[in-house]
Amino acid sequence: MIDWTNVLLDVGIAPSTYKEEFSIKCPFHEDKIDSCSINIEKGVWICFAGCGSGNLKGFLQKYLNYSRLQIDNLLHEQEADFDINLFDKFMVDDDEKLPETDFPFMCDLVPKWIVERGFNRYTLEKWGCAINTYNDLIIPVKDNDKRLVGWISRRLNANPKYMYSKGLKKSKLLFGACHLDIHPFICITEGSLDTMWLDQHGFGSVALLGSSMSKKQKEMLYNISTQEFVICLDNDTTGLRAMNKIFKELSTSFIVSYITLPTGIKDVQDVRNQDQLCDIINKRNYW
């Protein structure tokens, strides 16, 4: 079963209401009214202005400019997450705290491969990382009150690379917010390792745990004490699209900038050289 609400959120399309059917401004033409209707339960869409209609796979293919195979791979990754019932959980009040949980892993051990990628012992201990029997890196997820609310499994040679503990509502979290100090700017990333990597190099950072920013995450960003947000999303089409949307949401109240990654570099964690990483951040771009 495909969780279409979560899929749409991850590609930057926020439902106007969390019901089985809702309307949004059509992404395929300049839209002054909500002329595009999406039905989550049936998995279909229609633009009443004439842009098209059909199933949501076709909608994503058109929206992301992906091949059918790329869409199938994207949806496979969504289905492989531990928690496939996020739609029901969006009915919960945004102000309700996520439930606290236990951490059934050994925190004094981490897989060798994560150290070989450049993470030092101090960072891995600071973030409370652990290992499981499959040699995955386990990263605790804490809320702003430093309560453990779940964890992320970062797998080395498996697809999808990231899996999440059951019940973890990514849209209600800013990964890393509980570790923030006072910074003149805060970096916004997609993934947990990106945020940990920036933190290791002295940059304050939070991760959306995806490419889209939810209403709750926007509210949490507005409560961070900083002058500027630096968008550090993945170096791909989805990241670029999400970057522009996040800019529109934050630029009315904050200075918003963005980094440019070299060709062939997927994300900030792929920048292993400290001087190069600092140069990329310091030479960030402004609209």
Question: Would you kindly provide a written description of the structure presented here, covering whatever features stand out?
Answer:
The protein has 287 residues and is of the alpha+beta class. The protein has two domains: 4-89, DNA Primase, Chain A, CATH 3.90.580; 112-286, Dna Topoisomerase Vi A Subunit, Chain: A, domain 2, CATH 3.40.1360.10. It has ten helices and 13 strands. It has helices at residues 4-10, 56-64, 68-80, 86-89, 112-116, 121-126, 192-200, 215-222, 237-250, 274-282; strands at residues 21-24, 36-39, 44-47, 52-55, 130-131, 137-142, 148-154, 162-164, 185-189, 205-207, 228-231, 255-258, 285-286. The strands form three sheets. It has a five-stranded mixed β-sheet, with helices on both faces. Helix 2 packs across helix 3. It is globular, with a radius of gyration of 19 Å. The relative contact order is 0.11.
Strand proportion, as a percent range, falls in: 15-25%
Helix coverage percent of residues?
A: 25-40%
State the CATH architecture of the largest domain. Answer: 3-Layer(aba) Sandwich
User: Average pLDDT, to the nearest integer?
Assistant: 87
- Kindly identify the CATH topology of the largest domain: Dna Topoisomerase Vi A Subunit, Chain: A, domain 2
Number of domains: 2
Number of strands: 13
Give the SSE string: HEEEEHHHHHEEEEEHEHEHEHE
Query: What's the gyration radius in Å?
Result: 19 Å
The strands making up the biggest β-sheet line up spatially as: 10-9-11-12-13
- The global form is globular
Describe the main β-sheet briefly. 5 strands, mixed
The level-1 CATH class of the largest domain: Alpha Beta
Low-confidence stretches: 80-93
User: Pairing-aware structural class of the strands and helices?
Assistant: alpha+beta
Distance N to C terminus = 40 Å
Number of helices: 10
